[in-house]
Amino acid sequence: MLTLYHFNNSVCSEKVRMVLFEKGIEWESREVDLFKSEQFDPEYLKLNPKGVVPTLVDEGHTLTESTLIAEYLDDKHPEPALKPADPAARAEMRLYSKACDEGLHQGVAVLSYSAMFMDRLRAMPREALEAHLGRIPDLERRDRQVGVYEHGVEAPHVERGVVAYEKVFQKIDKALTDGRDWLVGDMFSLAEINLAVYFARLEYMTLLDVWTGERPAAAAWFERVKARPCFQKEVVDWVREDEWAEMAAGGARIKDAVAAKRRHYLDTDPAANIA
């Protein structure tokens, strides 16, 4: 049986759990509590030197990076397929995965930090904060946390995150203009799974309608994704009661600022409407 090191409300962990559910694969759970800094435990760092989740151990092979883990599982357990058979459609699916890895992941991180986790950082004694930041191997991730710690929702990283989401929503809206149910290959695929967890966090922070308010096709697509049993079992059911309240309250606090940043981008940037 394979082993998954994960955290309950980690978007990347949710993604891999959804794939495991769709495939019907049994797995052993090893939770890594990010708020107790268990990801920096020396033994865990031997598995995942970046100090992030998830990590999958399968027959002696250790895999990191959720997008790669998802593809590995689909390759090793091909039924039911989560990648289109057609090479062009498969490449299109991977463009959504790429958008998640290159934009949405940073976007959801800074929105979550400015809405909620910033307060946890600011409550730390200075010495503890510096120790926490010093343990983060990824310098870009460290810079994002410092930026949000110092500037909150006005950190430049937040605006970049808002723009990343806007570009992906534009792409989704364009793809759905022909009335299709799913984004590529007329099938529920890794495109949906990769995107779903990032949109779910927006919804839990009451921010989703900033982007979907004028996009009924995108909103309906996400409702179809949420109706999948894998979403309920591996995303919704893992969220703790206290986390629901924290996400909703934190998101409401920054919602006006986020909406204003999106509007400013659309009104002023020449590239704003190039999907």
Highlighted features:
63% helix; Glutathione S-transferase Yfyf (Class Pi), Chain A, domain 2; 275 residues; alpha+beta; Glutaredoxin
What name is given to the CATH topology of the largest domain? Glutathione S-transferase Yfyf (Class Pi), Chain A, domain 2
Biggest sheet architecture? 4 strands, mixed
Q: Which architecture name of the largest domain does CATH use?
A: Up-down Bundle
Q: Return the string of H and E elements.
A: EHEHEEHHHHHHHHHH
Q: In percent, how helical is the residue content?
A: 55-70%
Q: What's the Cα radius of gyration?
A: 18 Å
Average pLDDT for all residues: 95
Strand order of the largest sheet: 2-1-3-4
Backbone shape: globular
Beta-strand percentage?
Answer: 5-15%
Classified by CATH, the class of the largest domain is Mainly Alpha
Number of helices: 12
Tell me the count of domains: 2
Distance between the amino and carboxyl termini: 42 Å
Record field, number of beta strands = 4
Structural class: alpha+beta
The low-confidence parts are: none
Task: Outline the fold blueprint.
Layout (H helix, E strand, L loop, with lengths): L1 E5 L4 H13 L3 E5 L10 H6 L7 E4 L2 E4 L1 H11 L10 H37 L2 H9 L4 H13 L4 H20 L14 H15 L3 H5 L3 H11 L2 H6 L6 H28 L7
Parallel strand pairs: 1-2
Antiparallel strand pairs: 1-3, 3-4
Helix pairs in contact: 1-3, 1-8, 4-6, 4-7, 4-8, 4-12, 7-12
Tell me what you see in this structure.
The protein is of the alpha+beta class and 275 residues long. It has 2 domains: 2-76, 3-Layer(aba) Sandwich (Glutaredoxin); 87-268, Glutathione S-transferase Yfyf (Class Pi), Chain A, domain 2 (Up-down Bundle). Helix content is 63%, strand content 7%. It is built from 12 helices and 4 strands, in the order βαβαββαααααααααα. The chain has helices at 11-23, 42-47, 66-76, 87-123, 126-134, 139-151, 156-175, 190-204, 208-212, 216-226, 229-234, 241-268; strands spanning 2-6, 27-31, 55-58, 61-64. It has a 4-stranded mixed β-sheet with strand order 2-1-3-4, covered by helices on one side. A hairpin with a 2-residue loop joins strand 3 and strand 4 (61-64). Helix 1 (11-23) crosses helix 8 (190-204). It is globular. The model has no long low-confidence stretch (mean pLDDT 95).
